[in-house]
Amino acid sequence: MKSVFTIAITAGIALVLSGCAETTGPESGLVSEERLLQASESPGEWLMYGRDYSETRFSPLEQINASNVDSLGLAWSLNLGIKRGIEATPVVANGIMYFTGSWSRVYAVDARTGDMVWTYDPEVPKSWGERACCDVVNRGVALFGKRLYFGSLDGRLIALDARTGEKEWEVFTIDPEKAYTITGAPRVVKGKVIIGNGGAEYGVRGYISAYDADSGQLDWRFYTVPGNPADGFENKAMEAAARTWTGEWWKFGGGGTAWDAMAFDPELDLLYVGTGNGAPWNRDIRSPGGGDNLYLSSILALDPDTGELAWHYQTTPGDTWDYTATQHIILADLEIGGSVRKVLMQAPKNGFFYVLDRTDGSLISAENYVYTNWATGIDPDTGRPVETEFSRYPESNTQIAPGPGGGHNWQPMAYNPETGLVYIPAREDFFFYGQPSEWEFNADPRAWNTAAFANPALESRIDTLANRNQGVLLAWDPVKQETVWQVREAFPWNSGLLSLKDLIFKGNAEGEFAAFDARTGEKRWSTPLNTGIIASPITYELDGTQYITILVGWGGVFGRWLSLTEQVNPGTVYTFALGGKAPHPEFPVSPAKELIDLPFADDPATLALGASLYDTHCSHCHGYNGGLGGGGIPDLRYSSPEVFGSYEGIVGYGAYLDKGMPNFGDRLSGGDIEAIRNYILAMAQQARSAAGP
Questions:
Q1: pLDDT band (50, 70, 90) for residue 629
Q2: Which residue, of 74, 200, 356, 560, has the greatest Cβ tally within 10 A?
Q3: Catalytic amino acids?
Q4: Cα separation of 607 and 685, whole Å?
């Protein structure tokens, strides 16, 4: 709901917007379709998620450049007072900055001063957090007319008055009985609000929807995988896709959720959408007779008026590794082979960088941008990967690179037309995949269904070259398909990127916000922000001053468990300008934590039960082996004696539900809860012993 603060300053908002109108023209309060189409020609604003429909994340503003970036200082900051992951890219229009935080809250801030204008809380039920695979995050908003649009974690598409934060309409985009979530930012194309969803890990059928921006009425919906053939097919695309599936996949949902990437070409009148992994991950179980399983892990070109499929390109046929193609899509015109080609570029999870002809989806080139061992390359004639003989882990636990975190995750890359390079916040990691000895689909919307985790009964196949776990900032030549320069990072979970003409801005897990020379990779400037950074920076200009803004809030799929900074500080907005002299915020030092030391039942059967139940119900948020320490969600081994004295109330009766801790009373007995409690106490003792005196 709208905050009390909003009501108190509604009149002030009108003054702010009217003041902007004097400097930005008669339509300053209206983000028209024309303004969106010309967003690339309005460098003073950041009107949509990727700055423009091509999603380049490149700004031609040059007040801040390589020659003076060392004079960059803090202009203002804003403490949001929340300690969960912040992944949003802000948008700036008419002097106001709009963005989302955890639990899908929306903020409007004066972009000159950092003063809060209004906030809106959609009041997502905290129990919904259990259905979110990768934290209670949200990546942003869309502006159109005088409205702001965003998706809530629990599957609603909501329209607010951008001036006041008043809700105008909302619509459920999902079946609330199923494990769908929304974490991605919507896009507005031709008067329609386009939104996808997530939930493939839990067993859902993916789709992307378009809603009328004025009324919220559903305009069209395109399913990304076929449903039960007995129910008929929605269109010819689904009929064709069904021929690439076997078994009874629809009972598992199928997956293919379109949870992030979109781009739009107004000239070709095509909307490009990336789709996700299968449900479950393991194709041998999902589609036991094999098959490509269209349109999993694909790039789709859709008619934005009707949702009809124009073409598709599948990056990972028959995906069995969680190799989504939902990663950032960039449109550009590149000179290749002596002629200018209209291309689409993507670095999806599978580790290969793709350059496609965006008119028809044909492959121009593809090369691996990180170490990969599941495939040796992409066949230039068929566009299909050349898989290794062990890639589908048929008889062993197999160390595959990249892992399900991907060579590149949701963090946006950037394209610089001045250098001709794409800058990728890449990752190098691995995962042990294995065939389960037995598996049964769990229809509970809170239950993961991946069917691909290592099986202790099987031998393991090791690849020492895959044994990496780090981030890599890559400058990639998309024409030559090669690395120009790279900067290695300590941890694989870092921020998205912003490109100026001669600088690349990014943050990292160690809390450093930095600028790199776009041509050489030399670090030109940095400042410590003292909490890991995963969101993407933007730039804008007001009253002749160029600003750089980054949202900081540690979390996301890896940030829930582990932090490289001494403490996880509240989510904060940092905005920089040349000569900025605002003091950095100071946060109270968190008290030192000590591993809990309480007696426990050192009984092998009890501890084995506790370990099994912990892995099933707790590890997804709190980390494995009782916790990993230092992340955005508490490491349970450091809980207070009072917490351990209240385990049944917390775990079995939902005493901490308002904090996002689920109520497991319908799934765990009192004995189960006590077994988990004993297991965590045993893991704390083990950690103390390992640390020594």
A1: low
A2: 200
A3: 322
A4: 13
Q: Give tens-digit pLDDT for 86-103.
A: 999 999 999 999 999 999
- 19 pLDDT band, cuts 50/70/90, is very low
Which amino acid type is present at position 75?
Answer: A
For the chain, list the domains and their CATH numbers. 4-578 (2.140.10.10), 604-691 (1.10.760.10)
Structure tokens at 69: 């970036």
CB 102 within 8 A of CB 136: yes
What three-state secondary structure class fits 404? coil
Question: What Å distances lie between residue 406 and 56, 264, 325, 470, CA to CA?
Answer: 21, 24, 10, 12
Query: What is the CA angle 580-582-583, rounded to 5?
Result: 135
The string of DSSP letters for 76-91 reads EEEE----S---PPPE
Instruction: Report the C-alpha gap between 114 and 625 in whole angstroms.
Output: 42
Q: 595: which 2 tokens?
A: 């591993």
CB 104 within 8 A of CB 124: yes
Residue 229 has φ and ψ, to the nearest 5°, of -55, -30
For the chain, what is the radius of gyration of the CA atoms? 24
Contact at 8 Å (CB) between 427 and 402? yes
Ramachandran region, residue 249 (left: φ > 0; alpha: ψ -120 to 50; beta: rest)? alpha
Q: What is the pTM of this model?
A: 0.94
CA gap 344, 364 in Å, rounded: 10
Q: 251 falls in which pLDDT band (50, 70, 90)?
A: very high
For residue 333, give the nearest of 322, 345, 323, 324 by alpha carbon. Answer: 345
Per the document, the length of the chain is 693
- One-letter identity of residue 647: Y
Rounding to the nearest 10 degrees, give the CA dihedral for residues 667, 669, 670, 673: -50
- The answer to whether the bond into 478 is cis (omega within 30° of 0) is no
pLDDT attached to residue 28: 53
Q: How far is the C-alpha of 517 from the C-alpha of 514, rounded, in Å?
A: 10
For residue 182 the two structure tokens come to 């929304």
Cα–Cα distance between 671 and 648 in angstroms, integer? 10
Q: Which amino acid is at 178?
A: K
